[in-house]
Amino acid sequence: MSSPGSGKTSLLERTIDSLKNELKIAVIEGDLQTTNDAERIEKYNIPVTQINTDGACHLDANMVDGVLNNYNFKETDLFVIENVGNLVCPAGFDLGEDDRVVMVSIPEGDDKPIKYPVIFRKASVVLINKIDLLAYTNFNIAKTKKDSLNINPNLKIFEISCKTGEGLDSWFDWLREQVRKKR
Amino acid sequence: MSSPGSGKTSLLERTIDSLKNELKIAVIEGDLQTTNDAERIEKYNIPVTQINTDGACHLDANMVDGVLNNYNFKETDLFVIENVGNLVCPAGFDLGEDDRVVMVSIPEGDDKPIKYPVIFRKASVVLINKIDLLAYTNFNIAKTKKDSLNINPNLKIFEISCKTGEGLDSWFDWLREQVRKKR
Ligand SMILES: Nc1nc2c(ncn2[C@@H]2O[C@H](COP(=O)(O)OP(=O)(O)OP(=O)(O)O)[C@@H](O)[C@H]2O)c(=O)[nH]1
Ligand SMILES: Nc1nc2c(ncn2[C@@H]2O[C@H](COP(=O)(O)OP(=O)(O)OP(=O)(O)O)[C@@H](O)[C@H]2O)c(=O)[nH]1
Ligand SMILES: [Mg+2]
Ligand SMILES: [Mg+2]
Ligand SMILES: [Zn+2]
Ligand SMILES: [Zn+2]
Q1: Which residues of A50-76 are buried (b: 16+ CB within 10 A; e: fewer)?
Q2: Residue ranges of domains in chain B, CATH in brackets
Q3: Which of B97, B130, B140, B150 could form a disulfide with B106 if both were Cys (CB 3.0 to 4.6 A apart)?
């Protein structure tokens, strides 16, 4: 989950590219309109379905349920849902997931956790993306981490760049750990 | 209206700073939580009220109505409402405004109009902000403009940077023109 354009699909591209030889990954893409994001994922030859909500500002359990027959869960290690770009509404709708990941990105400014607390409260992981752009902003990473942990002390926080690849190894390790724990 | 962190409040700061000697400006700030944005506007000594929606993902007419008594509209030339950071829901709720302005920013990627068409359809102006960061992205401005005009041929589109000030004069001129037309 994240604002529009924080880098959710880019993260999936990076994750699938690095992990698809060790984990069977499947994806649901959610957007108001277009199949752009699903098309980006299709290039990796893994199962992916695009849900278009048309106007709805978040995926809900019914929409997800409607496409689950497209997947073989016995053959899936890691199932990822990319929600509609929205830092508010997705927090309120349980999709049956084990973990929620919230992404913020450097150009958005470091005040997002305190301004949009609900989505941080319900997350397991916060990803701070686009750290390659830090030099061009006044983003205070320590502040964002502190504010996030104030809202939710159990958060794991990773600083990453989907552009350069920096920091992604810790994210991949966390994913591997969750898959291992659930086996 | 824009995604979280595109630069709405920065735009207001720039606009008030440049125009407050010629126009009486008043502002409503809308956020889930915090008074951060209203505090930034207060520094300019103009009337401003912060609405906290708590959980709601958009301002609605009732919330706006609830604070209108804080203002003297006879003494106001330009009244601006900054909505909750959200590229979806605010499109669906009429606040009684004359014009809607949608802001996108360079780091978000150039596919936002086609992915979130409703909010562009209902706008009068699209602002493309943070053009100072163009060099560090693959943002195709021509594509974003073309897609926006396909959705809504009447859109005025301004490329700006609230950081450097580039492009803001055309935006100020448009505002002056709207104020003049309504007198
Ligand atoms: N500089 C930089 N740009 C990035 C990074 N990650 C993603 N981007 C860019 O950010 C833009 C948006 O990336 P997406 O992956 O489409 O973002 P998204 O969150 O999936 O967007 P929506 O699905 O529309 O909400 C693209 O232009 C990416 O190239 C990063 O780490 N650094
Ligand atoms: N590089 C660059 N950064 C900008 C520009 N305009 C705003 N910013 C930065 O973007 C971040 C967010 O700016 P805000 O004005 O708070 O954005 P906002 O849309 O009001 O955010 P919300 O109200 O939380 O949705 C801040 O760190 C600003 O300094 C710009 O033109 N260029
Ligand atoms: Mg995406
Ligand atoms: Mg703001
Ligand atoms: Zn919603
Ligand atoms: Zn909503």
Answers
A1: bbbbeebbbbbeebbeeeeeebeeeeb
A2: 8-175 (3.40.50.300)
A3: B130
